[in-house]
Amino acid sequence: MFSVQKWKCSWSMVATVASIIVLVSVVHLFLFPVVPSLDYFSARQVQYKCVPINSSLEQSTDHVWENKPKGLNLDHRFPTDLHNGVVYRNAPWKAEIGRWLSGCDAIATEVNIVETLGGRRCKSDCSGQGVCNHELGQCRCFHGFSGEACSERLNLSCNYPGTPELPYGRWVVSICSAHCDTTRAMCFCGEGTKYPNRPVAEACGFQMNLPSEPEGAKLTDWAKADLDNIFTTNGSKPGWCNVDPAAAYDSKVLFKEECDCKYDGLWGRFCEVPVESVCINQCSGNGHCRGGFCQCYNGWYGTDCSIPSVVSPIGEWPKWLKPAHLDIPSNEVTGRLVNLNAAVEKKRPLIYVYDLPPEFNSLLLEGRHFKFECVNRIYDERNATLWTEQLYGSQMAMYESILASPHRTLNGEEADFFFVPVLDACIITRADDAPHLSLENHTGLRSSLTLEFYKKAYEHIIEKYPYWNRSAGKDHIWSFSWDEGACYAPKEIWNSMMLVHWGNTNSKHNHSTTAYWADNWDKIPSDRRGNHSCFDPAKDLVLPAWKRPDVTSLSAKLWSRPRENRKTLFYFNGNLGPAYTSGRPEATYSMGIRQKLADEFGSTPNKEGKLGKQYAEDVVVTPLRSENYHEDIANSTFCAVLPGDGWSGRMEDSILQGCIPVVIQDGIFLPYENMLNYESFAVRIREDEIPNLIKILRNINETEIEFKLTNVQKIWQRFLYHDSILLEAERQQTGFGRVEDWAVEFLQQSDDDVFTTFLQAHLPGPKKETKEPIPADPPTPPFTCWPPHTAHLLHLLCRSHATCTCKEKQTRNSQRKERKKKTKNRN
Ligand SMILES: *[C@@H]1O[C@H](CO)[C@@H](O)[C@H](O)[C@H]1NC(C)=O
Ligand SMILES: *[C@@H]1O[C@H](CO)[C@@H](O)[C@H](O)[C@H]1NC(C)=O
Ligand SMILES: *[C@@H]1O[C@H](CO)[C@@H](O)[C@H](O)[C@H]1NC(C)=O
Ligand SMILES: *[C@@H]1O[C@H](CO)[C@@H](O)[C@H](O)[C@H]1NC(C)=O
Ligand SMILES: *[C@@H]1O[C@H](CO)[C@@H](O)[C@H](O)[C@H]1NC(C)=O
Ligand SMILES: *[C@@H]1O[C@H](CO)[C@@H](O)[C@H](O)[C@H]1NC(C)=O
Ligand SMILES: *[C@@H]1O[C@H](CO)[C@@H](O)[C@H](O)[C@H]1NC(C)=O
Ligand SMILES: *[C@@H]1O[C@H](CO)[C@@H](O)[C@H](O)[C@H]1NC(C)=O
Ligand SMILES: *[C@@H]1O[C@H](CO)[C@@H](O)[C@H](O)[C@H]1NC(C)=O
Ligand SMILES: *[C@@H]1O[C@H](CO)[C@@H](O)[C@H](O)[C@H]1NC(C)=O
């Protein structure tokens, strides 16, 4: 057996040997110093405890419920243990919840697949200004560099062209009166100052007009630079670029209050402390996070440096690529780098993740002007994790989990699904950050700009990879994190599965409902977006929004607070529209729903001093958020789930605090609604029933309330990004030897989370235990494995309808086997 070190040193020697099998000790790879154990890797595999179910029961595809529970017989609607309804991780689930998990035993078997490690070289090794993708032999260049070898330096301006009235151009987030770093379009103090690398972000560099009224807001004059106050060395004037932090902290000198440390990777009032920036998976320990872009160490590649090439030491291979043995091709080795095959044992579903060019991910992170944008965490002055409130942060969380998942494969030939990582969450917050993104070309529509991003990603994968055409993109997965979901997906990719946060089927709301003009997608011509809905429950999935991991709520077990402590009948907090101080003015905001609700049940006086028409003591509908928001929800029985400019994160607030969600938004799917049985833990009220809302809720009896509360407690972790949180815990521990309170607290939760649920949704359909030879035309078994609402997943795999037999899949498998045989013969 080879030792890890030996392998690295003797590559050329080894390469001359015909075929060597290297068994890498599991102990080497998985030994972890753990107090407490954060190595939960083994638990990351989806558990496959499946029970066959009776397919003929699964007729109901109807997701629209009766609004009034009439003659509700819980035992009839949810017969206990119906056909061994899933008993899953000791949760005695009612038959319908989780039934989609059933009957899939056969696919739990491990598969042996061959992972190919890329050995293609990039021109000039990307000139040290990029990372080589060894699969394609193509450079991913850092921000501000381009060309085949990243040798070309870009000149990205911070400002739009100036005019006499606006010498710095019109406003844009990157607007700069000091030194523009033209590789990043970011603004700094520059040479000649005491702190040349100190950011001069946005309002910092411009003059402030003091308000005319005492309460008024200060206004920035974007036409007048404030050079005096940022460049002065006179300590009695507010300087910025020359202020010594220590003196300023001691209040010995003045500094300009509008100046702030907004860029990532820097901490302290004056950006004087270098800290970790946020990178995808923090470069997996195989690279340096360069302000958001992973600068991988020699040989490693991928957005998160998680892909080894042939020169990467085996002992350092990531856990998801646990190798069983390696085949070293003798006949192709001529001293150059070649592709290397490693046989690996894995469980389906196997997901291939495209390593897209950096414009779709790393550059968006590297070019962020505000450190909190689009990420789910940043790092503080100790480099400890600081979780964000960014609802859009789930896109990054999901991407990281998939990349680090044991279900990931590098072998597209074997993959069941293909994940295309376009980080549109970062486009939302970046779209007007810098002139080079050319929002102008889209008449200011971020939706149109973003559509173009997806289209370019599509063009890239059809040009560079063979996988799209096999299923016309049906086995591809895209993520759209914007408020209204995948409405603006280019028509070319609509066959694929869309991961969104809001599932508008367009059955009732058939046009853009956002009140935010730049996100409107109605104006995108149909030759670009086609004529698709925003969500298709037969193929797409709604994922929960990111919620900051809240240790206080978790340790107080708010999710399990019993019925008797939930004295508030109904609760909603959020913007209630123009009737209230600082309410959103647009009538279309929240599709008018929040406004209607407040009109009936408002519990805080509006601008006219009025309460809702049907105000009641135990009903809270308020625009005022208390400091105990989570506890307020935990003290309520029913909690409203209403739209905002699309999704609003209220489903997650409700579920994570153990409250029964009351969904009011017609024709909109909520997280995992096409997989979970919402009827058993939520209430849906039609929009036109809002005036009767409280009457309806008061009519729900204790038995049913108890039933729903209990069920919320069974599924709440499916709304938690537990995998993502623990991955970060593991990184903190390996990187800094640190185990924070949140890590300990979250480690104690072990039910299926957002990511596991996502994987379960992708479990392949039943596989027949046919040993070779596979009959040319396999018999058609009845469709017994999948309930109708997940049939689409099978559909994705097999590309046929409910009676799917996985025939095509098998054919594909047999083709693969043929291919493999041929490969073997060649060797
Ligand atoms: C499946 O359900 C149908 C109708 O409820 C019933 O007639 C049939 O016997 C069941 N089959 C099995 C195998 O339980
Ligand atoms: C609960 O309500 C349903 C109808 O809404 C009724 O059938 C059931 O008997 C009630 N249960 C109790 C315990 O009152
Ligand atoms: C970059 O562009 C600006 C104007 O857009 C120009 O003034 C400047 O000379 C350019 N710099 C380089 C290095 O090309
Ligand atoms: C510093 O600025 C203050 C206030 O503007 C001014 O009174 C003083 O003369 C300046 N000192 C120097 C050395 O320029
Ligand atoms: C935090 O990380 C940055 C960047 O890697 C490093 O320069 C700094 O010294 C670290 N600080 C601490 C306290 O570990
Ligand atoms: C924007 O449009 C202009 C003029 O049509 C074109 O020259 C430029 O390349 C476009 N920019 C981008 C990023 O597409
Ligand atoms: C994929 O399909 C499209 C349209 O069917 C075709 O134009 C294209 O050439 C195909 N690409 C490959 C690589 O086969
Ligand atoms: C949207 O719905 C309205 C009313 O339900 C209908 O009149 C209109 O034609 C629909 N528009 C589209 C594009 O389907
Ligand atoms: C869009 O699709 C709907 C339903 O499929 C159809 O009724 C409508 O005519 C289509 N509109 C356009 C512009 O193609
Ligand atoms: C929630 O209810 C408990 C009693 O059940 C009470 O002690 C607590 O103060 C309440 N919290 C809030 C924020 O009202």
UniProtKB/TrEMBL annotation:
<keyword id="KW-0245">EGF-like domain</keyword>
<comment type="similarity">
    <text>Belongs to the glycosyltransferase 47 family.</text>
</comment>
<feature type="disulfide bond">
    <location>
        <begin position="122"/>
        <end position="132"/>
    </location>
</feature>
<keyword id="KW-1133">Transmembrane helix</keyword>
<dbReference type="InterPro" id="IPR000742">
    <property type="entry name" value="EGF"/>
</dbReference>
<dbReference type="GO" id="GO:0000139">
    <property type="term" value="C:Golgi membrane"/>
</dbReference>
<feature type="disulfide bond">
    <location>
        <begin position="141"/>
        <end position="150"/>
    </location>
</feature>
<keyword id="KW-0735">Signal-anchor</keyword>
<dbReference type="Pfam" id="PF03016">
    <property type="entry name" value="Exostosin_GT47"/>
</dbReference>
<keyword id="KW-0812">Transmembrane</keyword>
<dbReference type="Pfam" id="PF23106">
    <property type="entry name" value="EGF_Teneurin"/>
</dbReference>
<dbReference type="InterPro" id="IPR040911">
    <property type="entry name" value="Exostosin_GT47"/>
</dbReference>
<protein>
    <recommendedName>
        <fullName>EGF-like domain-containing protein</fullName>
    </recommendedName>
</protein>
<keyword id="KW-1015">Disulfide bond</keyword>
<keyword id="KW-0328">Glycosyltransferase</keyword>
<keyword id="KW-0808">Transferase</keyword>
<feature type="compositionally biased region" description="Basic residues">
    <location>
        <begin position="817"/>
        <end position="827"/>
    </location>
</feature>
<dbReference type="InterPro" id="IPR004263">
    <property type="entry name" value="Exostosin"/>
</dbReference>
<keyword id="KW-0472">Membrane</keyword>
<keyword id="KW-0333">Golgi apparatus</keyword>
<feature type="transmembrane region" description="Helical">
    <location>
        <begin position="12"/>
        <end position="35"/>
    </location>
</feature>
<feature type="domain" description="EGF-like">
    <location>
        <begin position="118"/>
        <end position="151"/>
    </location>
</feature>
<feature type="region of interest" description="Disordered">
    <location>
        <begin position="808"/>
        <end position="827"/>
    </location>
</feature>
<dbReference type="GO" id="GO:0016757">
    <property type="term" value="F:glycosyltransferase activity"/>
</dbReference>
